[in-house]
Amino acid sequence: MPVPDFIAELRDLGYEVDASPVPQLQGNIVVRFPFQIPLGSKSGEVITMGFIPPPDYPMTCPSGPYMTPHVLPLNTSTTEPPYGGVSDASGAFGQQWQYWSRPYNGWAQGERNAKAYMRHIKHLFHLI
């Protein structure tokens, strides 16, 4: 039960997770939850964070982050973080959602759990 495990791990971290299948994503489960940005120039702002946990979690890292409202301007002309690789995600998530292409390259060597993934996500905000 990999997807429920990811959801349970997020809930254990204190996040109020909503999970539902999305027809546009062939029924994959999307998790969403309120998230207060902890670091960086947007510190203190509350957004809705979203992820698509893979069916083979924890072998594979969740995709994302997805968020609404937009935190950064859309920028697909470069993939260079922190401002590149930011694209529109309204097709899968709804209006005003964006996707940041920010792979967690340390996943395979790390703890492979929601706590480790959320450390990665928090670090991303430190960069902006």
The secondary-structure class comes to: alpha+beta
> C-alpha Rg, in Å?
14 Å
Level of helix content?
A: 10-25%
Q: Biggest sheet, open or closed, and with what strands and sense?
A: 6 strands, antiparallel
Multimerization state: single chain
Measured distance between first and last alpha carbons = 35 Å
Structural overview:
- The chain has 128 residues and is α+β, with helices and mostly antiparallel strands.
- The chain contains 3 helices and 6 strands, in the order αβββββαβα.
- A 6-stranded antiparallel beta sheet has the order 1-2-3-4-6-5.
- The chain is globular and about 35 Å long.
- The model has no long low-confidence stretch (mean pLDDT 91).
Q: Characteristics of this structure?
A:
128 residues, alpha+beta, globular, 6 strands, 3 helices
